Amino acid sequence: MVIGINAKEALFPDKDSGIVGTEVKMGGYVWEIIGVLAKRQSTFFGENEEDSAVFVPFRTGMQVAPGRRFLVIVMRAKSGQLPEALNQVEEILRARRNVKFSEPNNFDVKTADAFITQFDSIFGMIGIIAIAISSVGLMVGGIGVMNIMLVSVTERTQEIGVRKALGARRRDITNQFLFEAMTLTFLGGVIGVLASVAISRLVVLLVPSLPASIPAWAVISGLTISVGVGLLFGVWPARKAARLDPIECLRYE
Predict the structure, then answer these.
(1) How far apart are CA 211 and CA 227, in angstroms?
(2) How far is CA 138 from the centre of its chain?
(3) Which ranges constitute the DSSP H helices of the chain?
(4) What are phi and psi of 95, to 5 degrees?
């Protein structure tokens, strides 16, 4: 048998070498270790499972565990001959499993592209859920910005009255509070981008095999959405400030 590095450390914790040729007992059978796999590269989900695997000859494994219900066979096709290899594999499996011509396959044949497509669909669904959650977060944040701006309008009522008395137009008051709301959300977006960059660098340091980077379009999109939230939820406070009567504003205490 050939064992992974984790299996080797579990069976022989005190030996760094010299275990090839050693016999071990597994499943009531005596096996001879003929090799140890080198440390495998970590996968997206963490440590590679081959580090803890035990490999035995196929026919011997079928004799030892004849009742195994699931069997996964990994095959490699020659370059440029993947369709032909898939057809041959399907024909051989149908013949060995005695599948009649009119019956569907009772097995599944998948390529790496199929697994990638499946993962893409899973992550696509996760992305949709993340967008929905983010939308709720943006709405809550926008409502918070709107409340802050409404409080600001109330606290600066006399300032608005003075500006109008000096000749400020409704458009000037509206632009002032809209710019303040957009500046507030823009600063929040900048803080979020900086936090994202810091987290991505931390992930790279902790898990080197997991690539983590922030593209420029994501930064631009995040800042644009932040400013858009300020613009959208700052309209009502700005219009409310612009419609105030200057005489009533100057009397306000």
Answers:
(1) 29
(2) 19
(3) 5-11, 58-64, 82-96, 112-155, 157-165, 170-206, 216-233, 235-242, 246-251
(4) -70, -45
Residues recorded for the chain: 253
Q: What is the DSSP string of 126-144?
A: HHHHHHHHHHHHHHHHHHH
- Residues 206-226 pLDDT 10s: 777 667 778 888 889 889 999
Structure tokens at 237: 């406070």
* 102-140 per-position pLDDT tens digit: 888 888 887 777 777 877 888 888 889 988 998 898 899
Angle in degrees, 0-180, between the axes of helices 112-155 and 157-165, rounded to the nearest 10? 70
At 161, phi and psi to the nearest 5?
-65, -40
Return the residue matching tokens 């097995």: 107
Q: How far is CA 14 from CA 9, 17, 19, 21, in A?
A: 8, 9, 11, 16
pTM across the whole model: 0.58
pLDDT of the residue at 191: 93
Q: How far apart are CA 178 and CA 170, in angstroms?
A: 12
